[in-house]
Specification:
Blueprint lengths: L3 E2 L6 E6 L8 E4 L3 E2 L5 E8 L7 E6 L10 E4 L5 E6 L2 E6 L6 E3 L7 E5 L4 E5 L4 E5 L2 E5 L8 E7 L2 E8 L4 E8 L5 E3 L3
Parallel strand pairs: 1-7, 3-6
Antiparallel strand pairs: 2-5, 3-4, 5-6, 7-8, 8-9, 9-10, 11-12, 12-13, 13-14, 15-16, 16-17, 17-18
Length: about 190
């Protein structure tokens, strides 16, 4: 079962569910279709701003990689929730579920956070994005041919290991957490 990561303060309570209870307001994503259902990650959300407006969300599984991640976690914006279902990512406003965006990389293969920079960091096979309080903060150019692995954060720098397929080796890339500019990598 997937657990909820409360790495940032949030204005809601949440439960990850294995099935949908009957008689509740439900939305499916993508599309924020009220009353719909998709196979994937299911969550129950109770916004603190209006506890009478609880709802259930089902989030469609991605199909691009069997190794893609599933994740449910708070975002830097306390009214937003991040749900990743087998690599397909969604950022949803918990008070107004029709206000959502699909994360602009896929499949999402890894997630980490920087509380100091108030960033949710996600990577695909070849690039990294940062999601902040105001939405997408930055997206790197491709830095790998087929693989990224988060190594850690030191100050304003995120270090990642990337796969350089032509050279048949891994190399290190450094990403500035403020701008998304990169140094190193495989491309």
């Amino acid at each position: 079962m997937i657990k909820f990561y409360k790495n940032f303060e949030c204005d809601y309570s949440i439960d990850v569910l294995s099935e949908i209870p009957s008689g509740v307001r439900a939305f499916c994503f993508p599309g924020a279709v009220e009353g719909g259902y998709v196979e994937g990650v299911t969550v129950s959300i109770i916004p603190r701003a209006d506890s009478n407006q609880s709802w259930i969300g089902t989030f469609a599984n991605g199909q691009l990689s069997p190794r893609a991640v599933s994740y449910v976690g708070a975002c830097p914006d306390p009214e937003q929730l991040c749900v990743i279902a087998k690599g397909d990512g969604y950022i949803v406003n918990v008070v107004r579920p029709a206000e959502y965006v699909e994360v602009p990389i896929m499949p999402i293969m890894g997630v980490t956070i920087s509380q100091e920079h108030e960033l949710l960091l996600m990577h695909s096979f070849d690039r990294v994005i940062a999601w902040g309080k105001s939405g997408l903060s930055w997206k790197t150019q491709p830095i790998s041919f087929d693989g990224v692995r988060f190594l850690g954060i030191n100050g304003d720098i995120l270090r990642v290991e990337v796969l350089d397929v032509p050279a048949k080796r891994t190399v290190i890339a450094s990403i500035d957490l403020k701008s998304g500019s990169t140094e190193g990598g495989a491309r």
